[in-house]
Amino acid sequence: MTGVTTLPDRRLLLVHAHPDDESIGTGATMAHYAAAGAHVTLVTCTLGEEGEIHVPALAGLAAAEADQLGGYRIGELADACAALGVTDHRFLGGAGRYRDSGMMGLATNDHPRAFWRADLDSAAGQLLEVIREIRPQVLVTYDPNGFYGHPDHIQAHRVAMRAVELAVAEGIAPAKVYWTAMPRSVLDAGLEAFTGSSDNPFAGIDDASELPFGTPDAQIAARIDATEQHAAKEAAMRAHATQIPANSWLYAIAGNFGAEFMGVEYFTLAVGEKGPGRGRYGWEDDLFAGVGRDEPDRAPVAAAGLR
């Protein structure tokens, strides 16, 4: 310990599976709270070694070639965090402790270091160490299906929720836990908007219920309007160039819908009391809604421990 500082009153912890998940799913929210002075901590569980590579010149980094993609993605993630204004990022258990498991059912699920195979209590204990240090009032991760069924997303959910259980036993649990979500009404609108489009991400799907994600609007707890940060989110996504091609349909949607698409993100509330909201379903517009500024106490941390 080289010195002790005090973190801001509001502290947000996000638990994601791979580099790029943070930017696609929660980038606007992260940038919004970082810009507002909250302490935003990102924990990424793997290096994303099994990802596809959309930069031809880097094809040799693939798992079946040099197997160096994970190391390269560390740099991409650092650039993405810089774009989002996030200065506190950690890899669960240290960089490379857990390996990208690949899609469900592949042989890569059985790799000795695959996150899908990780001992739950051991991994949760590593996340608990972060909770002890940061004392976040709010934690964000995926739902039990990992949003769309990827084994590492499912495992990230399990690890995060087990860590919260352990934190409850110590009296240091976050006041609220959110899961990333997409309202059914937004998906319905997307299906309609892209009908007939040459770059239709929903091609072949006629009903939003056919998608592996989508939450009834009444079950959504929070809608974070971070449209002022849509450019930061797009910059963070572009930092993950190996994973998101420059001509991705994500950017096409951004071109059509701009800040609304890039800057608005939704969540369900898994743990804690819902705060004041608005609109038909009383959606919160702040993940800290109803959380006292002094609950839990401000967290003293070793200055050298932030990374």
TrEMBL record:
Catalysis: reaction(s): 1D-myo-inositol 2-acetamido-2-deoxy-alpha-D-glucopyranoside + H2O = 1D-myo-inositol 2-amino-2-deoxy-alpha-D-glucopyranoside + acetate
UniProt entry keywords in alphabetical sequence: Hydrolase, Metal-binding, Zinc
Main EC class the enzyme belongs to: hydrolase
GO biological process: mycothiol biosynthetic process
Cofactor note text: Binds 1 zinc ion per subunit.
A GO MF label: N-acetylglucosaminylinositol deacetylase activity
Cofactor (UniProt): Zn(2+)
Keyword Methyltransferase: no
EC assignment: 3.5.1.103
Pfam short name (any one): PIG-L
The keyword tRNA processing is assigned to this record: no
Superkingdom, taxonomy of origin: Bacteria
Binding site for Zn(2+): 18, 21, 153
The protein's role, per its UniProt record: Catalyzes the deacetylation of 1D-myo-inositol 2-acetamido-2-deoxy-alpha-D-glucopyranoside (GlcNAc-Ins) in the mycothiol biosynthesis pathway.
Family to which this protein belongs: Belongs to the MshB deacetylase family.
Protein's recorded name: 1D-myo-inositol 2-acetamido-2-deoxy-alpha-D-glucopyranoside deacetylase
Organism per entry: Micromonospora robiginosa
